[in-house]
Amino acid sequence: MSDLETVRELARAGLASLEAHRRRIDDLNVYPVPDGDTGTNLTLTCRSVVDELARAEDGDRATLARRVTRAALLGARGNSGVIFSQIVRGAADSLGAVEGAADVDTLARAFRSASDTAYNAVREPVEGTILSAIRALAEEAERAPDDFWPSLVRAGDAAVARTPDQLRVLREAGVVDAGAAGLLEIVRGIAASLTGEEIPSAVDDVPLTVAAIHLERSRYRYCTTFVVEGEDLDTERLEAELGRLGDSLLVVGDRTALKAHGSRTCTSRRRSARSGWQRSAPRSSRSRSARATVRCSRASARQLWSREGNR
């Protein structure tokens, strides 16, 4: 089986596992903004990678790694999707530089690279989130257990279960972190595909508490995402300019493409949101060759409550 065929199979397996748990993960979503869409955002991000792989043609491993990285970046949705795109980037960069079969040491380096890249992408890393989960997976991979993939999933389960102890807002709401839970389901699907064994799934019935449904952590109620493509883009400068407009800000990518995601206050009109963010972008990001795509959507605890009540 070629590298492309292998990656296609693993990406589909991760996506299928995530999709099976998408609604549960949406329901867990209370941090950083309780808008009930983490499962959906991660699913859309994973699907963009699967779709890109379906179009790809056989090539060298480094080229395949770049295609996967770019697909995850451009397809990333929401806070969790953007961080997940950096997990993918770190793993792909590591695996793309390796020749031959990936042994346990190779996989351990890939998980460590994924963890480091994700942490470095976040200005103020918070424990009890998807970051804690990927770090726990990296640490378990570096232990090199004999039953590598089942042990990795067990370590992930334990990491997800610890998130309420690490993050007070989760403890108050009586839930685990949605991003961490979503990442684990992706890894669970990949592990099952590689071992040919069904690995026990997390419990699906996790009832939301009243505290979780009514939680409102941020005064910025619009989730805004856009991509800037150009030349010699400056991540730090763009991040500094956008940081004063909202919170939960992430700016990730490279010198030719950056994805920005954050929660901010804006009008209900997409044009107003677009102009507000783009005016803040430095001139180097608004060159003739640059283009921006903006998605702005409103979500509140009240809407989450309404959706739960109508199910």
Structure commentary:
It is a single chain. With 311 residues, the chain is of the alpha+beta class. It has 2 domains: 3-214, Alpha Horseshoe (Serine Threonine Protein Phosphatase 5, Tetratricopeptide repeat), CATH 1.25.40; 222-303, 2-Layer Sandwich (Alpha-Beta Plaits). It is built from 14 helices and 4 strands. A 4-stranded antiparallel beta sheet has the order 2-3-1-4, sandwiched between helices. A hairpin with a 3-residue loop joins strand 2 and strand 3. Helix 1 runs antiparallel to helix 3, helix 2 (22-28) packs antiparallel against helix 10 and helix 4 runs antiparallel to helix 5. The termini are far apart.
What's this model, at a glance?
The protein is of the alpha+beta class and 311 residues long.
